[in-house]
Amino acid sequence: MKSVTDSFVSLGHWPSAGGFGFNTDILATNPINLSVVLGVLIYFGKGVLNDLLDNRKQRILSTIRNSEELRKGAIEQLEKARARLRKVETEANEYRVNGYSEIEREKENLINATCDSLERLENYKNETLLFEQQRAINQVRQRVFQQALQGALGTLNSCLNSELHFRTISANIGILGAMEE
C-alpha cells in the first residue's frame, strides 16, 4: 500500500504540467504556507479587526462608565445611609431607656441592606464586564475565522483552473484505482 508521501511524489512527476511539481519536504513548505496565510490574514483582516476591537473597546468603556456611575450612586446612598445612621444613633441616645434594642435592630438592618445593595451592584458590574469581554472575544474569533476561510477559498479558486482541476481529479482516481488492485 502506498504512503501519502508516495502519492505526492507521483503527482509531482506530471509530464504535461510544464514544470509544476510538489515539494515533499514538509519542513520547508509548512513555514512558507503559514507565512503566506498569516500575511494574507494580516493584510486583509487588520482594518476590520481594528475597527471591531475599537468598537468593543468603546462599548466596554461605556459599560465601565455606567458601572462607575452606579457605583457613585451607591456611594451616595451609602453616605445618605450613614447620615441616617448618625441620626438614628442620636435618637438612640434619646430613647435608650425606652427602646434601645429596637433601634439597634433598625441600625443593623440598615447597614446590612446597604452592604447587600453595594455587593449586588459590585457583582452586577463585574458580571457585565466579564460578559462584554467574552462577547467581544467571541465576535473577534468569528470574524477572524470567517476572513481566514474566505481568504483560503479565494486562494483555492484563483489557483485552480478547470484543466488543472480535471487533471488532479483524474490522477487521484488513478492512484485510488492502483491502491485497490
Mean pLDDT: 80
Beta-strand segment tally: 0
Derived structural class: mainly alpha
Spans where pLDDT lies below 50 across 5 or more residues: 1-17
- How are helices and strands ordered from N to C? HHHH
Oligomeric description of these chains: single chain
Give the end-to-end Cα distance, rounded to a whole number of Å.
Answer: 10 Å
Instruction: Report the C-alpha radius of gyration, rounded.
Output: 35 Å
Largest sheet: none
Strand content: under 5%
**Which bin fits the share of residues in helices?**
over 70%
Gross morphology: rod-shaped
The number of helical elements comes to 4
Main location: membrane
Organism: Carlephyton glaucophyllum
Transmembrane segments: 32-49
Family: Belongs to the ATPase B chain family.
